[in-house]
Amino acid sequence: MTTRRTDHRMLDDTVLDHVVRSQVGAAVRTWRHERDGHSPMNVVLDVVDEVIGHPYAVYWVDGDVPEMFSLPGLDPSVVLFNTRYLEMIGHLRGIVTARHLSPELMAEVAEQVSLRIIAELALRYGDPGLACHLLVESLPASTTYYAPVTLRDLERTPIGHHYMAVWFYPLLHELGHVHAVTHPPARPEPADATEHLDRLIDGVTRKLFAGDLDGDVREWRRRRSRRDSLDHGVLREELDADMFSAQVLYTATARVLQRNGTPDAFRADQLAGEILLMFGLMQFMNSCVMVARYGARLGRDAIDAFNAVAHSVRLNAMINFLSLHLASGGRPVRGADPEAVDEMHAALLAMHARMNEQFTAFEVGHMRAMRHSVLPEERGLNVFDRLAEAFTHEATAAVIRSETERFLDLARTLDVEHPDLDLLAAFVARPADAAETLGRQQRVFLVPWVTGEGVDQPFGLPTHDELVVFVFAAQRAVEYFIEECRPMLAPGLDLAVAAFVSPTNQNVITLLFRRLPEHRPHIQVVFQGSDAFAERIRQLDDGTFWPPE
Questions:
Q1: DSSP 3-state assignment of 32?
Q2: Other CB atoms within 10 A of residue 295 CB
Q3: 444, 405 in Cβ contact below 8 A?
Q4: Is 395 exposed, middle or buried (0-12, 13-18, 19+ CB in 10 A)?
Q5: How much is the pTM?
Q6: To which H or E segment does residue 64 belong?
Q7: Is residue 400 within 8 Å of 387, Cβ to Cβ?
Q8: pLDDT digits over 79-94, tens only?
Q9: 76 cis-preceded (ω within 30 degrees of 0)
Q10: Which of 6, 63, 314 is nearest to 173 (CA)?
């Protein structure tokens, strides 16, 4: 989920179309949803109309990265309904609910699909080199492959609880943010509501952080300098969207089944299970967005240390809400029989525990993909070499080619250019010559290297909040740099040039990070010829590079 803030103003259709295109790119296909007929989506939006009472527009987005977001501050408010997001979350549901996958195989498949999602998002967020690397790592090196879900597959799903949850729960969550903006809660928040939220947060924190860590986490949050996902305002917005989406989905699903001539097929408990399942899958998708932003250096604030805690708080609140909803038969929850609520609560906890067995196996692979995205030293080396070889194997070539072509199409739609994309395109164009193509792509990278007693690593210069490692393409430039930096060295240390031969920058980054000490400051690697390199050199020249004394 992403909510993007904008100035509040009344917009006509032309301006609204322009705003949407400015968010996704001119080449991405977008169109406003028309409310013709009695499709399931229109039935859902009819229910939304009854609750929101504020103008809004739903835009379909096709050919973009898998991300849903809303612009609730506009008038009308805008929600972007992304077909790639639908495909990927449908794909995740198919994996998580596949009973024939062993935990080990599920982890492997989860890693593949998570890497692919993050790779696509990294294209959007401005790091095509990382995007290409993660895409290549996601491609099956063996015959292990779980066929993706297409929009056509989702359209063929029988209309029922599964169909309604996959198609509309994420959409309704974004519309819930519109509802939160147009129907803000009382400010300041009532004391009992604040205390209830604090109790939920404390309970989850105690469960997740044992012993003294619980107190440390609370103290850390108390001293934090920025908002995080446990901030009451942020958390309340998400909770409101969660409750809105569940409540509307219940009403809409019953109406859709009624219109479909199968009202007796409605099962409130089954829909609750689908909601909890989608709730967990959306968290996986959101974490992919978070690490893609971080990997593309959109700021260390992209990583929210309390995201998992906030998710657990929201999960507990959702189970509480569903328990009350089921116990009251969908009617207003006041006066619900406490014993019935407790019974429903226990049933939902048991349902989620069974579901969590599958989530746990999936999360093993998902976390590996997350670590690859943010920790360069854990990424694979020479992945393009393995890809070139895989293009020659009949068992894997067709799948690899299909996934690579789809990724290249996305890059063209987003108007992204990069040498690694060109390399992938050359592999696709002449797969039999992939190894030869890769050989021609090899380049020499020159890195200042510091050695001495107990020291043998890349040399970096400390700036305000990180260590910058400079990678050169020209011999004279690296030699001049070394001579300028040598006086900065401590006694007993020396600088020399280390040469690395690689087809990609990402391979060099992984090599360098593996040679850096485990406990180190944040690292930035900049390559001669890039804008980042030029900016760092400019800062060295004008003196703004160095940290304040």
A1: strand
A2: 27
A3: no
A4: exposed
A5: 0.91
A6: none
A7: yes
A8: 999 999 999 999 999 9
A9: yes
A10: 314
